């Protein structure tokens, strides 16, 4: 996860210049089982070397000399999980002196969203797995990665007013019930359906279509879509230098 020389002993490693890495919190929505609430979930990678061998961690890795931070985040995601999200945002820089037990490590954290069709899809590897955000297995993660996940959740909860969030997590068309499920999963609480419907139908970023969701036993619900205009501020741009 860094370019620290293999010849350096522990004391020498601690006095070397900081190594630079990127890590990404990738969030998606998984449909609840047996009618239960939808849940936020994320893929993690099990570390196969020290430090923290055997522990789950965020996907990530080093930054190459001739790539931007955004390019490094996208490349490391593709290499470790096979995922290529269309939304990638720089989250925060984590650089506490002792966050790595072997050497000084500075991590640029990124934040990505996947739509429902992509959730659960990763490379076939026993060391890559999806977890619900409240799964007790990820309470203890390598390094300070649980802290990074919590920061990403805080950021997401402060972005729920943006229509692009629904667009990224649900796809091009969605029902108001599915959208409410997303908000409930993000906020961690139930929302009154009638109030939610009135609020969402009054926003300019969501508009109804002439399409309906087919296949149900009852009257099919109407489909809505994100109606934002202009350049999408959440569009990933891996060519831009960060």
UniProtKB/TrEMBL annotation:
<dbReference type="Pfam" id="PF21906">
    <property type="entry name" value="WHD_NrtR"/>
</dbReference>
<dbReference type="InterPro" id="IPR054105">
    <property type="entry name" value="WHD_NrtR"/>
</dbReference>
<dbReference type="InterPro" id="IPR000086">
    <property type="entry name" value="NUDIX_hydrolase_dom"/>
</dbReference>
<dbReference type="GO" id="GO:0016787">
    <property type="term" value="F:hydrolase activity"/>
</dbReference>
<protein>
    <submittedName>
        <fullName>NUDIX hydrolase</fullName>
    </submittedName>
</protein>
<keyword id="KW-0378">Hydrolase</keyword>
<feature type="domain" description="Nudix hydrolase">
    <location>
        <begin position="17"/>
        <end position="156"/>
    </location>
</feature>
<dbReference type="Pfam" id="PF00293">
    <property type="entry name" value="NUDIX"/>
</dbReference>
<dbReference type="InterPro" id="IPR015797">
    <property type="entry name" value="NUDIX_hydrolase-like_dom_sf"/>
</dbReference>
<dbReference type="InterPro" id="IPR036390">
    <property type="entry name" value="WH_DNA-bd_sf"/>
</dbReference>
<dbReference type="InterPro" id="IPR036388">
    <property type="entry name" value="WH-like_DNA-bd_sf"/>
</dbReference>
């Amino acid at each position: 996860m860094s370019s620290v020389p293999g010849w350096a002993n522990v004391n020498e490693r601690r006095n070397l210049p900081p190594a630079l890495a990127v890590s990404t919190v990738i969030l998606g929505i998984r449909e609840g089982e047996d009618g239960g609430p939808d849940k936020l979930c994320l893929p993690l990678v099990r570390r196969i070397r020290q430090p923290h061998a055997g522990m789950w961690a965020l996907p990530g890795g080093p930054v190459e000399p001739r790539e931007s931070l955004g390019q490094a985040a996208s490349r490391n995601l593709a290499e470790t999980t096979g995922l290529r999200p269309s939304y990638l945002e720089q989250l925060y820089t984590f650089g506490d002196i002792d966050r790595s037990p072997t050497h000084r490590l500075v991590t640029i954290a990124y934040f990505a969203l996947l739509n429902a069709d992509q959730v659960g899809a990763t490379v076939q590897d026993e060391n890559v797995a999806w977890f619900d955000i409240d799964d007790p297995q990820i309470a203890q993660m390598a390094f300070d990665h649980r802290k990074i996940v919590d920061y990403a959740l805080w950021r997401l909860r402060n972005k729920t007013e943006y229509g692009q969030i629904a667009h990224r997590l649900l796809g091009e068309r969605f029902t108001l019930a599915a959208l409410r499920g997303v908000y409930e999963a993000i906020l961690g609480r139930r929302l009154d359906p009638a109030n939610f419907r009135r609020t969402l139908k009054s926003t300019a970023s969501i508009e109804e279509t002439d399409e309906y969701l087919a296949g149900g036993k009852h009257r099919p619900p109407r489909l809505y879509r994100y109606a934002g205009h202009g350049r999408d501020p959440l569009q990933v741009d891996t060519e831009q230098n960060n």
